[in-house]
UniProtKB/TrEMBL annotation:
The keyword Signal applies. It comes from the Bacteria. The keyword DNA repair does not apply. Pfam families: CarboxypepD_reg. Residues 1-19 form the signal peptide. This is Carboxypeptidase regulatory-like domain-containing protein. SUPFAM superfamilies: Starch-binding domain-like (SSF49452). Keywords: Signal.
Length: 135
């Protein structure tokens, strides 16, 4: 049963991630190089990685999904301060703040508190501040 919500979250995150640049070409003259937000999402109680969690920057509509080891990376993030939201099925959604430097990488490890029912959420690019909460 847990496969279906993870699959839905993956499909929602896959389209914007596929549209992101692979970073192989240097930016054009006058274009500011974006940075990367990367880290590991873990269970706040056990420290174990959370696979299939969503990590997004809602204002930009970009994000990533964690792998089996809970790792994620969001590329091409414009320089500046950004609100980041992380969440997963049966975990409470958590908000963070990061400052990204031009062409730099920022590490954001995101511990999530486990839970069930109301207040637990999945996040995806385009949620613009509102989450899909579990019934």
């Amino acid at each position: 049963m847990r496969v279906l919500p993870a699959l839905a979250l993956f499909l929602i995150l896959a389209a914007p991630a596929a549209a992101q640049s692979d970073g192989s070409a240097p930016p054009a003259p006058g274009v500011v190089a974006g940075g990367t937000v990367e880290g590991v999402v873990t269970n706040a109680e056990t420290g174990q990685p959370v696979a299939g969690a969503g990590v997004v920057i809602p204002a930009l509509g970009i994000g990533a999904m964690t792998d089996r080891e809970g790792r994620y990376a969001i590329a091409d993030v414009p320089p500046g301060e950004h609100a980041v939201r992380a969440g997963a099925f049966t975990y409470h959604m958590t908000d963070y703040a990061v400052t990204v430097a031009e062409g730099g990488a920022v590490r954001l490890d995101a511990p999530l508190a486990p839970g069930a029912g109301a207040g637990c959420a999945a996040v995806h690019p385009g949620d613009h501040g509102e989450a899909d909460t579990a019934p």
